[in-house]
Amino acid sequence: MKILVVDDFSTMRRIIKNLLRDLGFSNTDEADDGNTALPKLQSGDFDFLVTDWNMPGMQGIDLLKAVRADPKLASLPVLMVTAEAKKEQIVEAAQAGVNGYVVKPFTAATLKEKIDKIFERIEAAG
Amino acid sequence: MSKNLICSDNGLEYAKKLVDCIERGDQEEAEKVMEDLSALREGQLFQELGKLTRDLHDTMVSFQLDTNLANLAESDIPDAKERLNHVITMTEQAAEKTLCAVEVSMSLADSLRDKSEKLHENWGRFRKRDMDIDEFRKMSTELDEFFQWLDQKNPEISSSLSDIMMAQGFQDLTGQIIGRVISMVQDVEEGLVGLIRMTGQKMAPKGGSSKNKDKDGPDIEAVGPAVPGVDKGDIVASQDDVDDLLSSLGF
Q1: Residues 6+ positions from B110 with CB-CB distance below 8 Å
Q2: Mean pLDDT in chain B?
Q3: Which residues of A are less than 8 Å from B107 in CB distance?
């Protein structure tokens, strides 16, 4: 299981990577915005994407849309971990095809629950 | 400028009166009418002068405000930007320091668990007398090594915990800096409101709504973390709200 963690704050990337490692996912890579994340996703064999929304350069929502528009990446599970807490934003992300949405500040338990749920659904579907 | 009052019904009346007096040869009355007419003219002049004086005063006051605002724009706002950048740096350093300490402690905790699990298992076998003398000697050596390891690693754990505690000092410092920036922002706000009042423009009460109307495009703007007391309306209050909203959308 290879996971890409996208956030412009290195501390947040680190926190998420540590939490993922605790959950047993140690094969992770990082990017600081959509522009650096997208080439990594297109050239790497990632199984899961965790992304922030508000980033300089390409924002998380645009990264999500780009992923869904790319035939090779369209089915990649995407979890959004963001401080953006407006209902219209959550609806927007859902319409763009997000698999899970976690608002910051979050707990390790919340992150685990959302990740577990995403994989459960994928297994049930496939 | 006195044209307005002279060329009016009032002025016409005076003029007719004056013609009448001259025709009648009433010198005294004619002079009185002329005096009234020039009083009318002077009254208008004083009114204009008063208006000019008031305008001048208002302009002077607004210039003063302008200077205050210029000071704010020239020095205080860049200063505040720097302060806030410093807050970012400090909080980042604190987070970095804390994470380093946590990573060290976590790896120590993992080693501790592995070592004690192994010793616990052997100890159980010894208690059940399911251990020969060679194995017992081996376990004794391992126990010695384990205690030595504990003595050696204990200071590392303490120092990590202390690092985490010390790193939290950023809260005090950043809190003070942010407090100062807030008061500066209040000054700017007051200055701007004063300036707007002074220039006689009414503050558009629905300034925000027209902006929202413009922003009808497909792209949705990121606004950052919701701030209690500032952001109101359609903000989710917790992860539960997010989950409810998503499940209402069929998630």
Answers
A1: none
A2: 81
A3: none
